[in-house]
Amino acid sequence: MGVTLMFMVLGTATPFIFLYLNKKTLAIVQSILLAGMWVYFIQVMFLAVVPAVFSITWIMFYTSMMLSAVGWVMFIIDMINTSEKYGGLTIKEIREL
What is the pTM of this model? Predict the structure, then answer.
């Protein structure tokens, strides 16, 4: 369950990544899905109630996990493109930009 919790924490940061990438619609969708993700987690961990497969919280949990993975991949691609853009420049040239 520790790995799942780690991915949930990363998923919680994903709306900020979408805002950084100017994807406001995805940020709003991910924020809504986060609520369901944490409700599902609390139900399973602390209330010993396992929601049925394909219930609302189950769908929100797994959709949020997939969307957060997409967000992190988009962020990594953006960082690589940015580093290639500034790769050949000197510090003085970067400061002038």
Answer: 0.80
